[in-house]
């Protein structure tokens, strides 16, 4: 495994981030534990989750599964850089009471305590804001974060799904208060969805945030969706099926798969390896449902993409260009 600094911090993290969203809804607790053991065995030390994972009536279940894994000991917690998130409502289904979501100081405090209990740990390494909160000022957010840092309950703060100007606003507010501010941004970024290159990634680089792309295969679209459908005799499903209904998208994906076939490369591994070449990227989040899927992701770390392939990928999936030139003269 290769490691890098998380943004401008001194924290070293693996170039792949283990995403845990499938733990509970799609992957059983024993299987989830096996995947986490395999991730550690491969040198992955950065695990990402969120308080709402598990979804619906099972919100929090994913954190619980990670917690029972930590409880087995063997250095599992000590070797892990743990990131979780706050924003989504943790109120029971149909519960009308307020202050169980967003980024108020009240909810941040409540959410941290609940996550720590589920995770069976005394601290969270990177506590991430899952979405922008248009109702809470950053002065309040940073005050709540500073209290938690002083208490030793969190070490760093990160963002997720923030636009570039919100990254700037958050860190300018933190700087005025003499605080570190955001150290990471988790955003939707992959070959098929490159809009983050316009402003989010430049803002993250300017303020020293590590970029953590989620959905690196774009819901399976970049994992050989057309090839797999042809081999199985079944149509693609989920987000990739919807995308492939668009003829221009289907043409792009076909050209992508043809290019990689020519070079004997696996689409899913290339999609991850491409992200690892991008400026500002700390590491993409991989969310395996099985240990076999984790093995495929691990091969991407060692994959060196030829210049001919990189040029071909840019031709098939051109980026939006820099801002403001992308939308102005």
Task: Please give a handful of descriptors for the protein shown.
329 residues, alpha/beta, eight-stranded parallel beta sheet, two-stranded antiparallel sheet, 12 helices, 10 strands, globular
General description of the model:
Helix 1 links the parallel strand 3 and strand 4. Helix content is 41%, strand content 14%. The protein is globular and about 55 Å long. The chain starts with a strand and ends in a 13-residue tail after the last helix. The strands form two sheets. An eight-stranded parallel β-sheet has the order 9-8-7-6-5-4-3-10, with helices on one face. It has a two-stranded antiparallel sheet with strand order 1-2. The protein is α/β, with parallel strands linked by helices. The longest helix has 17 residues. The model has no long low-confidence stretch (mean pLDDT 96). Helix 9 packs antiparallel against helix 12.
Secondary-structure map:
Blueprint: E1 3-5, E2 12-14, E3 17-19, H1 29-41, E4 46-48, H2 61-70, E5 81-86, H3 105-119, E6 124-129, H4 138-150, E7 154-160, H5 164-176, E8 182-188, H6 200-207, E9 210-214, H7 225-232, H8 238-244, H9 247-263, H10 267-276, E10 285-286, H11 291-302, H12 307-316
Parallel strand pairs: 3-4, 3-10, 4-5, 5-6, 6-7, 7-8, 8-9
Antiparallel strand pairs: 1-2
Helix pairs in contact: 2-3, 3-4, 5-6, 9-12, 10-11
E-strand count: 10
What is the H/E order? EEEHEHEHEHEHEHEHHHHEHH
Distance between the termini: 43 Å
Which percent band covers the strand fraction?
5-15%
Report the radius of gyration as a whole number of Å.
Answer: 20 Å
Q: What is the average of the pLDDT values?
A: 96
Number of helices: 12
The general outline is globular
Please give the order of strands in the largest beta sheet.
Answer: 9-8-7-6-5-4-3-10
Based on secondary structure, the structural category is: alpha/beta
Task: Please bin the fraction of helical residues.
Answer: 40-55%
- pLDDT below 50 for ≥5 consecutive residues: which ranges? none
Largest sheet: 8 strands, parallel
